[in-house]
Amino acid sequence: MKQFTTEELNEALRAINSIIHKCEKAQEKFPEGNSQHTLLKNRLNAMAISKALITEELYKLPTETPVFCCEDCKPEVLISNLEHLHTTELGAKRIQKNLRLNTEDVVLWCKEKIKSANASITRRGKNWYITVDGCEFTVNAYSYTIITAHNLKS
Q1: What pLDDT, on a 0 to 100 scale, did the predictor assign at position 3?
Q2: For residue 36, which of 5, 30, 43, 128 is within the disulfide window of CB 3.0 to 4.6 Å?
Q3: What is the pLDDT of residue 71?
């Protein structure tokens, strides 16, 4: 496979972000279930996959200073989307077990940790990684699903 430069990948990412924006705008004009709506939904899914693959490639490239490959990789994106944060029932149990949490509302606990001043938030590929107060948890960058958490002190 051809090796792409950082500039080429960033330019492709800008184009994909533009396509995503235009498809989202167009999709609003069609009722759900309509063939045009479904077509745009499929295109948006394809663009999300493309964006994730390019972002992953960008993170593999060596760099001397931390660079956000795109606007979506800035920690503020996760923080501004905290209302979408969720997990599955099994995910909540796994997080409670791994961190020995004594709380029923794992999502609220994670939201508070993300908002704390000492939280380190980075995005690598399709996931956000939040390190704070001796633990690290993983959040999917597209669905905002809290996947898992680990105690770093163990």
Answers
A1: 77
A2: 30
A3: 57
Query: What does residue 133 show for φ and ψ, rounded to 5 degrees?
Result: 50, 45
Tokens of 28: 């609003």
Which spans in the chain are helix H? 6-27, 35-60, 75-80, 89-99, 106-115
The two structure tokens encoding residue 45? 């899914």
pLDDT single digits (tens) 5-28: 777 887 887 788 788 888 888 988
For 39, the token pair is 């077509």
Quote the longest CA-to-CA distance of the chain.
52
Closest by Cα among 72, 55, 81 to 146: 81
- In this structure, the number of other CB atoms found within 10 A of the CB of residue 29 comes to 10
Helices then strands (H, E): number in the chain?
Answer: 5, 4
